[in-house]
Design brief:
The chain has about 140 residues and is of the alpha/beta class. It has 3 helices and 7 strands; from the N terminus they run H-E-E-E-E-H-E-H-E-E. Strands 4-3-2-5-6 form a 5-stranded mixed beta sheet, with no helix packed on it. Strands 1-7 form a two-stranded parallel ribbon.
Amino acid sequence: MKRRIQIAQDGPVQEPMLPLINIVFLLLIFFMIAGSLQKLGPFEVDPPGSQTAASQPEDAIVLWFSDNGDIGIDDLTGGLDRLSSMLPVDYIGRPVEIRADRNVEGQKVVTLLARLQELGVEKVQLMTAMQPDQE
């Protein structure tokens, strides 16, 4: 005796949702791994604006410089006197990105640049925030 399976003609056809959920989660994981996240500094700075943008090197050391003279590298903070102990061991030959606050006095930046030169840093970049064209 054969049994017949009857398919309801009046209801909507339901597709299996598991493959769709798997694809969504795989895409989510892919973009989490492939996306680059910006490093957050030890304190907040408001960089000066500029009209052009340049790419940053992958191995650059990010140095945060606040308006009151605090310096931060990774999770370490301190003053200009602690700069040599805050730099990574392999800093020679690597570029240093200075992310200074827009309210920092020029003389403080010059002093920081002189200290970096004394420590043997050869390439320094002053990072700015991209501003729209001003007319």
